[in-house]
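Homework-ish question, so no full write-ups if that breaks the rules, but can someone show me the predicted structure for this set?
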Amino acid sequence: MSFFVDKEWFYYLRGREVLLYKLRGGSSTSRISQSGVFQSYDNEMMYPDEDIADGLRIEYTRVSEPFVAEALETTTSYESGIIISFEDGTGGSSRDIIDLGSASNDGDYTVVTKGTDGSTGYQQLEVAAGSLTTEAVGERISITQIPVEVASPLSTSHINLNKMLNLAVIDYCKAMLAEQNGEIDKKEYFMKEFFSKLGDNESNKRNISVTFPSGPFAIR
Amino acid sequence: MTVLEVMERLNIKEETLVISWIKDAIHLIQSNTKEKVESTKRDLIKSVNSTDNVYILPADLVSLENISIKDTSDSKYKKIKRMTSQPHYLAEDTSP
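A: Not a homework solution, just the prediction itself:
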């Protein structure tokens, strides 16, 4: 069993590889000694000494789903409540139906059609058959709309970014166009604009209120 | 904003070129900021030799955010620290 992993496990980056190491003298082996005190850590490292299913988690950024079918600003639908249920293969024989309610079906699903149940009047979101596990109402569930990826982008495809970053992308494209035309000074200008908008986008999410104390001779 | 709108603002007609520039721009955005962070999980293998502690980073990685290990005592992923150099002394101990 692994414990104190944040103190005893380390990684080293070697090119495109991650090398994992574990502190040998850590809590897994240190015990109260005969003198009654804890043994101290030492710097001896060893390789991982146990199997852990899904034990390594890597968080990273990548270029995922760069193009989507609709503008990010328009995907604002959101439903939440404790009256959402999931059914598999009911209604239509070949489709799963969400009665605007759910539980242990966390994940992304592509909605095939949206309808209304004839007998109950419940709203239904239909997804591909076999996608969902049957689940009764009771859990608090939220359904959030996200845009559908366009794997082969066309001129009508939307960029999967918010408006500010879209404007930054235009600056980047202008910079590339200027470079293509040999106008390096323009390229530098538009790249500066590009990074400026990246900064604006980040600062828009981090509004900080700063209060200054008034000086002893300030007019009150 | 559509690809067509970008093309009109740039006053160019090469759709493929604009799409590749947009992808490059998104790559640069993901490299400089954390617009969209994702995660992947791998099984940890008990090492029996000095190559078993080597794991390949995701091929589509742009920027590494953090690496964590599952603490099986409470089933939580905890961030681990990065070493700036490989250990000078290494005990190949497979049965501590």
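Now go work out the reasoning yourself. Hint: Confidence is low (pLDDT under 50) at residues 28-34, 36-40, 92-101 of chain A.
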